[in-house]
Write a structure and sequence with these properties.
Length: about 500
């Protein structure tokens, strides 16, 4: 094949979670994060220091020292063991997180925290590979992992650049990737310490310097590891991605309120959980090839059936049609009281995954038809939405306007789950607040219990241009745990409930 006839594609992604054991130790002891910290092989004075954070490194506590020696250098050093089982569990946790971005994830056998990801075919699913890489980092950050991501054209290229990246990097051409790779220092890579020292003595500090060495005699002079590194770096030893297979079952269990024998109603019950099963299969890059249905009957018998598709698919309508046909053939001896579903999945095409990701999970046409029926029966103002605008008082900060058509919501991502404040159209008068505080004031009756805490006041005054208003707002926490948003109206001399915080 002639060079230049096919445009190379960026098929490789690499995620580096640097010093994974150290990050796991920081998750176990978050109070150590701002202190010099190290992972030791054994929690005793002669235990070998394996990993150190930046504060320990600046104090000159280096890997290879004994724990006692590290303490003699830095008295504030905090250290602990991270057993291999905990590291393996951390790797499994990261694999599950990364599978939500690509079904093909290969962890490094030698370096825990390094993962290669299949980045091929993502441009049809993602707005850009840059956004994809940043979303990976953001998701791992939400789970308390610091990571660096590189996306490019070769396994070794993205590995070396992820090891030295600060954030994420996406390469546009193989030449751009190769130039950046040649400048990476060898001490950034996971190399044998003796090999690195021997290369340093010859003035070989970067990948480019190493590739300039004559390959003849490389193994004889520096050992087989040096020859293996040279073959990987030059691409003469190219290995394909070897993703970890997913062995988690894709299943669901449904308990029915009463025995059911009708095939159509059973199909609609299965329809409610099928999208979630297909999403789990799609997250692994798979499609449904068979759906096993186990019906537990009211007389304790089991009826088991299976529907099989012609090819792996994520088309819920096609699967449900097969389910309905299969259930129509059953003659149940009693009503079904439980349904257990189990999915057989196999890898599917990127076209199937693309169609599945682009298909909205909410049927806007069906919602608009439902709104039209509501307006026809109850009037034009039966379907409304709140339009926000600036106003002085909380109850005047929105107006209800007719909703003509449904829209897909676009919520903003938040690091923490925000509190929601419900505002009533009109403030609700509250019973009189007694003189003995804080005991005894039942804000909304005995079911919430008496007031436990009160925060405020937050004064809102003005309105002299129409009608003067002076309100002292408070947040009241009841014994039950509810948080009420109340205010005292000085002109009317009584308390009102403005809303509730959830």
């Amino acid at each position: 094949m002639q060079s230049g006839t096919i445009k190379p594609t960026r098929e490789w992604g690499c995620v580096d979670v640097p010093a994974l054991p150290l990050q796991l130790l920081a998750q176990r002891y978050p109070e150590w994060v701002d202190r010099p910290m190290a992972v030791v092989a054994e929690d005793r004075p002669q235990g070998l220091i394996l990993w150190v954070n930046e504060r320990a490194y600046r104090a000159r506590v280096l890997p290879g020292l004994r724990y006692a020696a590290g303490l003699s250098i830095c008295r504030e050093l905090c250290a602990g063991e991270v057993p291999q089982e905990e590291v393996d569990a951390g790797v499994e946790r990261l694999i599950e997180l990364l599978r939500t971005f690509s079904p093909g994830v290969e962890p490094s056998a030698d370096e825990p925290g390094v993962f290669w990801i299949d980045a091929s075919g993502l441009l049809g699913l993602e707005s850009s590979l840059e956004n994809w890489a940043e979303r990976i980092r953001e998701t791992l950050r939400e789970h308390h992992f610091v990571a660096h991501v590189a996306v490019g054209f070769s396994r070794f290229g993205v590995y070396t650049l992820a090891r030295c990246a600060r954030g994420s990097v996406v390469f546009e051409t193989p030449e751009h990737e190769n130039r950046a790779m040649l400048g990476v220092r060898l001490d950034r890579l996971h190399l044998d310490a003796k090999l690195r020292q021997n290369l340093t003595k010859l003035g070989v500090h970067t990948v480019g310097d190493f590739l300039e060495l004559p390959v003849d005699g490389l193994a004889r002079r520096f050992g087989p590891d040096a020859l293996h590194l040279h073959r990987i770096a030059t691409g003469s030893l190219a290995t394909p991605l070897d993703p970890v297979p997913c062995d988690k079952p894709i299943d669901a269990w449904i308990e029915l309120e009463y025995p059911e024998t009708d095939a159509l109603r059973l199909t609609f019950i299965i329809k409610r959980v099928l999208p979630a099963l297909l999403h789990r299969a799609a997250s692994y890059g798979h499609g449904l090839s068979a759906l096993h249905i186990d019906l537990l009957l009211d007389n304790t018998r089991h009826d088991e059936v299976a529907v099989r598709t012609a090819e792996p698919t994520l088309d819920a309508a096609q699967i449900l049609d097969l389910v309905r046909l299969k259930l129509d053939t059953l003659e149940l001896s009693a009503g079904a009281v439980e349904i257990r579903l189990n999915v057989d999945s196999t890898p599917t095409s990127k076209e199937q995954l693309g169609l599945f990701s682009e298909k909205p999970q909410r049927d806007l046409a069906a919602a608009n038809r439902a709104f039209a029926r509501l307006r026809a029966e109850f009037g034009r103002l039966s379907v409304v939405w709140p339009r926000l605008h600036r106003a002085h008082l909380p109850e005047a900060t929105f107006n209800w306007e007719p909703l003509h058509s449904a829209r897909i919501p676009a919520p903003r991502k938040a690091r923490q789950r925000p509190l929601m404040r419900r505002i009533f159209d009109r403030p609700v008068p509250l019973p009189h607040r007694g003189n003995h505080e804080p005991d005894g004031w039942l804000v909304r009756g005995p079911e919430q219990g008496p007031m436990r805490k009160i925060f405020g006041p937050y004064t809102v005054s003005g309105g002299w241009w129409v009608r003067e208003v002076h309100r002292d707002y408070h947040f009241v926490e009841t014994q039950k745990g509810d948080v009420m948003w109340v205010f005292y109206d000085r002109h009317r001399r009584r308390w009102f409930l403005q809303g509730q915080v959830e």
